[in-house]
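The material for today's practical consists of a large collection of protein records. Read left to right, the backbone structure tokens trace the chain's path through space. An example says more than a description, so a record of this kind follows:
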Amino acid sequence: MTSIPVLGADDVLRAVPSATAVDVVRDAFVAHYRGEWTMPPKVYVTNYPAGDFRAMPALGAGHALLKWVTSFPGNPARGLPTVTGLVLLSNADNGTLEAILDAGAVTALRTGAAAVLAAEALGRADAETAAVIGAGVNGRAAARTFVARGRRVAIWDVDRARAESAAAELGCDVAASRDEALGADLVVTVTPGYEVLFDDGSLQPGQHVSLMGADGPGKAEVAATELARTRVFCDDWEQASHGGELAAAVDAGLIGRADVTQLGAVLAGDADGRTSAGEITTFDSTGLAIQDLAVAITALASVGDVQRVEL
């Protein structure tokens, strides 16, 4: 029998500070872009409208990963988390299991990291205001990451009490209104993706928006025609063009492969990010297993004593 460490949510969050998550997720984006880390497209097992299950594998840095994770947006009303599941981390050289991690905590860390990383890479250098739309677990992670990176941020949620609770916990502000939040220089949207937040003509010159909520078929936080008038970036073209914010615009013929730049190429220095102060930039995030892999490796290397199971 083998003793395997089990990292619960608190273990993961203690082992990987939000600022560290930004750094390791940046490295993962670059490694994936260069072909050093590999990742097949995620597989969806859907039970809409209730939610879906996702299987996400990745390989890199001597490790292999499989994340089995859910997204059930109606769960908070039942007193249940939206995201649950497990991350299995293995040794890529001999196949042995190295750790079991809480998928919700890993997902929150890498989602917040990717959102803020994109905002820093693509936003204006003189951006003054930042806002997060959505005060759920992943929205709080994005706000926490902004704060960890030294930026003041406001949070807004349809449930004001939830936004106030998040602000008190994280040391950030509560946006006075949704319109105020949507008008920030740097915006991160972390909603279920069932409602369009940005209609035609709503985005302002110089804004950047990290679109984190529309991570599956049929979801959208921005109108397809509005997205098409921005400078578009994504985490992975194959995923985003089929199951992300880009999907509707691609299906309508408004956006093609040549119109979209992968964030990894920008971070590696092989593609331009923002090219002018007045440009509107958008980042379509569908969530990559290579991000989970980066967080899981870091957590395993940094964690102290944790529960173990015999397998």
Notes: The mean pLDDT is 95. The chain has eleven helices and 15 strands. Residues 3-106+290-310 form a domain with the ornithine cyclodeaminase, domain 1 fold (CATH 3.30.1780.10).
